[in-house]
Design brief:
- The mean pLDDT is about 95.
- The protein starts with 8 loop residues before the first strand and ends with a helix.
- By secondary structure, it is an alpha+beta fold.
- It is globular.
- The longest helix has 15 residues.
């Protein structure tokens, strides 16, 4: 499979599919929650009209951006992305889950499947992620998937007039195979 291909991925409870224009209202509602924007510096709050449509339209060739949807009713509940650097065989993982769906294990389930696809479908060697020190939920998701802490960038990002620590973690293909 070429790096530009983006298959639909499925898990026990989820379907991960490319975003569609019709997802814009749900993206604006879910990503527009203050709790989401507080943890992801490139999500505006309040979320302006038209921003979801523009975001959906910005899919780049190297970007594997998936709508996380429930298998039972196709409801959109979040987003997960691999931003690939094919020349280095690595990608950055990013995700968010809408607040009404927190605590159900959906982020872990989606991350496991996207990491699997990253290694098995796209042939990546390394997948890394970054998260704010104020976001222990993301740290738990990444640990459950097998990511290991690699470093800390102290007060690296200024978000909402607060300096935030950025934690860096990663998983290698061999760790995934043997994990």
């Amino acid at each position: 499979m070429k790096p530009t291909d983006q298959p639909i991925l499925t898990t026990d409870r989820l379907i991960l599919r490319p975003f569609e224009d019709a997802d814009a209202a749900a993206v604006q509602e879910l990503a527009g929650a203050r709790e989401i924007a507080a943890m992801i510096p490139n999500i505006p709050h309040p979320y302006p009209d038209g921003a979801a449509e523009a975001w959906i339209a910005t899919v780049k060739e190297r970007l594997k951006r998936y709508a996380i949807t429930l298998k039972e009713d196709a409801r959109l509940i979040g987003s997960i992305t691999l931003d690939m650097a094919c020349e280095h065989d690595h990608a950055q993982l990013g995700f968010w889950i809408g607040v009404p769906y927190w605590g159900e294990g959906y982020a872990t389930e989606a991350a496991r499947e996207v990491v699997r696809a990253g290694f098995e479908v796209w042939g990546l060697h390394r997948i890394y992620a970054q998260y704010f020190g104020t976001n222990p939920a993301s740290a738990r998701v990444l640990a459950k998937v097998g990511f290991q802490e690699e470093g800390l960038m102290r007060q690296h990002v200024k978000h909402w007039d607060q300096y935030q620590d950025i934690h860096l973690c990663a998983i290698l293909r061999d760790e995934h195979r043997h994990g």
